[in-house]
Amino acid sequence: MSDSAPAIASEPVAPVADLPSGEPIPPPSAAAALEPITSVNEKKPQPSPAALAKALYASDAFLARLNKCLSTPTGIDTVLLLLCYTSKFSASILGVLSRSILQRSLREWLAVIAGSVPPGAKTAVVVDSKTAAAVAPAAAKALVHAKRLNALSTLLSEARTMTRLWALVGMYFWGKGVFAKAAAVWRAKRNPSSSSSSALSASEKEQLPSTTETAISLLQFSLCVALQVLENGAYLSSKGVLGWQPARIGKAYLWSARFWAAYVGIEIGRLLALEPKERWKEDSWKGNLAKNLAWAPLTVHWSSEKGLVSEMVVGLLGSIPGLVQMRELWASTA
């Protein structure tokens, strides 16, 4: 009988723990019951031809206006100005937020490590970039983006400085107009009955600037020429084109900013001194005032050897003239 015993007696018996518990099987959830069964080959809805055509038309119109903005030196400088300071401001915001999160995460991580060290034991913890990326990956990535935005801002700033090397050519023609008006005012004031003065019509005489306005224009023109000459010399010397020493380059940049600060201060006073009816004659009086009010603290900041404000404030204030000029430029290309 032992030879005819069933072979299944030698198979391992499943443990009791692996047997079914006998509890009722829970019913499927309502969400699972109502979930639609989708086919693997089912295609996602595609945008209609009308929507694609509308998107293409909007993109074409945007690029056409942007091309108009970039077709003049002033337009190029405006676009670079906006991108330069908005990228600097964005980099500062990202840097401050990511450093705060990273420091808090590292403090928590170090507290956990300190709690696992036996009392009286000495240990050293080295925190490097890889450790920071592992502890707070989002903050570490934000720091990388902030560094790249800062690099972009520096590049755009240098590009604007390079394009201003030819600004003296435009200032020459600006000076011609300023001195021509000054000469006309001087002749009209000195010899009101002269032939050149009497040849002017009544409307032309009314359009002549006053002696104070003429003096302000001459002073602002002189300040702009001085600041541009100093900036050009300092920039070309920093690139090895001219032979100015580093100390002279630093002083040139400081005095260039100081001349700019003087120009901005005079311009703010001139705009505020205008009567309400004269302000409407000014092209974008509010825009010019907003731009110069934003430039004023920055020019004072750059005029100081140690500086006065943070990079975040520089980016914020510098973005205001960029937004104002870009808005005016964009409106002119409509």
UniProtKB/TrEMBL annotation:
It comes from the Eukaryota. Residues 1-46 are annotated as: Disordered. This is Peroxin 11C.
